[in-house]
Amino acid sequence: MAVSERLTREVGVLAGRLAQFLAGSLPRSEGASAEGHAFLWATFESVAGGQPLAAWEGGPLDRRPDGGPHPLDRLADRLSLSGDEISLLLLAGMAEEHEGYAAVLRTLHPRGEPRASIGLAAQLLCRGPQDRLRLRTMLVGGALVKSGAVRATGDNPFFERSLQPMDALWSALHGLDVWPASISRLGGPIAMSGLEQWLGGQGAGRAIAAIKRREPCTILVTADGEEEAFERGRALVHHANLESIGIALTGGTDAEQEQAIGVHALVRGGVPVMRMAIGEGAGGQGATPAPRFSEYPEAVVISGREGTFPVVHNQRPIFTVPVERLSTEARRRMWRETLPRLTEHAPFLAARYPIEPAGAAEVAADLRMLEGIEERTPTLEDVAASIRARGGLSLSGGVKLIRPSATFDDLVLPRDRLAQLHEAIKRLMLQARVFDEWGFLKGRTGARGVRMLFAGPPGTGKTLSAEVLANSLAVDLLVVDISRVVSKWIGETEKNLAAVFDTAERAQAVLLFDEADALFGKRTEVSDAHDRYANLETAYLLARLERFEGLAILATNLRQNIDPAFLRRLEFVVDFDEPDREERHTLWRCHLPADVPLDEEVNLYELAALYPVVGGVIRNAAVAAGFLAAADETPIFKQHFIRAIRREYDKAGRAFPGVPAGTIAS
User: Fold this and answer.
1) Where are the beta strands (DSSP E) in 373-527?
2) pLDDT tens for residues 374-427?
């Protein structure tokens, strides 16, 4: 029997009993009452299959159909509802079943409401004072009412109040996936590839066993990110062979919302998995409490960010399941199973993109669509583009996104500086061997991150080098101007910097903190509250930087202003000196396109020797010379370069060295 047919039949049987009651109470009814009686009896006969009402003496729970459990039976079993409570639920839902029932109930309600009153329930279910007391007890503190499945509404005298089912419950009992508007659902496929080791661990194993046994407990899944914790919570339920019911919570829940989540989950036979979106520091004093679910008879899973989890106050057993980072082999298996067309690249993907299985599944969906549209095998560049697009970059003031295009061919640096940049990339790519296979820094938080300091005058290539590193890693570059951030975010610095780090981790982006000495400078003596808070901001940023598992670069024009205590926490310190003559000559050649029309008298080596400027100035002068020549409709002459360089010196307030011998001043 279909789910909907079962519910319709049971309401029809109840309609027959109500018709029998009315026939005995109002034997000579006329008008609307007579029409209502006829409707009730007709609906009973439509479901009775020719059997008399006496053949339906048992309750709905005595007429369970073959096959899987019906939503009505699930609710009754898990809440231990009596036959009378099921009858109350059916009576409360009659108006939701058919407009004809609502019309009949309106004629019977003492206040004309299209609902069954408690008094009508008493007439149908009670035979004496003791039964009426039992009915009152059920409607005051019984499981049906305590769960919120049925409410007695109104401030009328008790027996004149109306019976009303929970919002959207009647549709759910019909087998429809309808939820109350107050509940925000989360769903989608559940990715399991690569989670075998974590699911087999002690914490996850204990939680899975409790879920399978439907123990009344709360399972807290914690991770660095809310989405990561939520997906792992869904994986726990899926591994227990039960349906996970994903729900988004943006703060604490009230009792009515918890009741709705619980009842709707029981009706569906699933396990609620809630994603708590709580701000940084929510776990402290006065934090929003976690959902209680004190009376809920089964397991619930609450997922949230590590260190910001809300306070839990109740006597339900609690299991905490921390999300552990996937091992290198688990990540390789994840990528092999998720992207079988790129199996040979699984080791590279595992080293470069340590994302969660859910994220890998999203990338796979993007690549499948791309493969269908363009009829070609996806590439590593397609993987990088997908991860970049799904990073969900949300940039605040003081943060700039750069889509990197520069390569090592664009860099003009001494050989030892270039070697450090290449070494930083290898440190990210070879972590599997050094950390996982050889066991270096085992268990140390943030060991997989790489932190670098770029120190040198403006225009010496610090930002360009960061862009080259990001391009080599096939990710975006996020430039954070700390000098703007500190002044703007005073009082909320930790919260907003946490958002920057979260964004970078989600998109696997490289972080560049420009003018880092604004926050990583020598810590000041505390003379007022502002100094104290500035030092707290510095301590927070340093701690978060140490936990960051990507590439973070601090850039400063003045290395001497950086607190020496910070330097030992950095893996690389790269000094960017002003270029020598040979490097300046290379920079001039680098910034002039191959096909640019140069006059034969232009001597780049002469320009490099006479004007000791940095790469940024050379770039500006080269572009300006091009525009000057274009305006004159001539090739680029020596005097075009001289005018452009003089302008750069004037902008910097520096004395111009003069012009080469034989050059006409302009």
Assistant:
1) 399-402, 450-455, 477-481, 510-514
2) 889 999 889 988 988 887 666 666 788 888 999 999 999 999 999 999 999 999
pLDDT at 524: 44
Helices 615-632 and 581-590: crossing angle, nearest 10°? 40
| Residue type at position 402 | I
Please tell me the distance from the alpha carbon of residue 42 to that of residue 36, in angstroms, as a whole number. 10
CB-based burial label for 312 (10 Å; 0-12, 13-18, 19+): middle
Domains and CATH numbers, the chain: 3-173 (no CATH), 184-322 (3.40.50), 328-389 (1.10.8), 399-575 (3.40.50.300), 581-652 (1.10.8.60)
pLDDT of residue 281: 39
Tens-digit pLDDT profile for residues 304-332: 887 766 666 677 899 899 998 888 889 99
Q: Is the confidence at residue 666, as pLDDT, over 90?
A: no
Average pLDDT over every residue of 283-298: 70
Cα(60)–Cα(64) distance, rounded to whole angstroms?
7
CA-based R_g, the chain, Å: 36
Q: Quick one: which of 289, 284, 287 has its CA closest to 302? A: 289
Distances (CA, A) of 566 to 488, 539, 548, 583: 24, 10, 15, 31
Closest CA to 231 of 260, 279, 199, 262: 199
Cα-Cα-Cα-Cα torsion 331, 334, 339, 341, nearest 10 degrees, comes to 80
pLDDT at residue number 612: 94
Strand partners, 401: 478
Average pLDDT over residues 225-234: 93
Q: What is the mean pLDDT of residues 602-607?
A: 93
24: region left, alpha or beta (phi > 0 left; psi from -120 to 50 alpha) = alpha
Report the alpha-carbon angle 253-258-263, nearest 5.
Answer: 160
Angle between helix 380-389 and 357-374 (nearest 10): 120
Model confidence at 258: pLDDT above 60? yes
Q: Note the pLDDT tens digit of each residue in 102-149.
A: 999 999 999 999 999 999 999 999 988 899 999 999 999 899 999 999
**Could you tell me if 27 and 2 are in contact, meaning their C-beta atoms sit under 8 angstroms apart?**
no
Q: Which run of H or of E encompasses 470?
A: helix 462-472
- The predicted model gives 145-166 an average pLDDT of 95
Question: How would DSSP label each residue in 335-380?
Answer: HHHH-GGGGGGHHHHHHH----HHHHHHHHHHHHHHHHHH-S---H
User: How many angstroms from the chain centroid is the CA of residue 332?
Assistant: 23
Q: Decide if 515 contacts 481 (C-beta within 8 A).
A: yes
Q: Tell me how far apart the alpha carbons of residues 222 and 304 are, in angstroms, rounded to a whole number.
A: 5
- Name the DSSP class of 598: B
Average pLDDT of the chain, as a whole number? 87
Long-range interactions of 364-373: CB distance < 8 A, separation 24+: 364/338, 364/339, 366/390, 367/339, 367/341, 371/341
- Residue 298 · residue 216 · CB < 8 Å: yes
Share of the chain above pLDDT 70, in %: 88
What is the pTM for the complete model shown? 0.80
Burial (CB count <10 Å: 0-12, 13-18, 19+), residue 417:
middle
Residues 6+ apart with CB under 8 A from 504: 478, 510, 511, 548, 550, 552
Beta bridge partner(s), residue 479: 400, 512
pLDDT at res. 144: 96
Q: For the residues of 106-146, what is the DSSP string, one character each?
A: HHHSTT--SS-BHHHHHHHH-SSHHHHHHHHHHHHHSHHHH
Q: Is the confidence at residue 622, as pLDDT, over 80?
A: yes
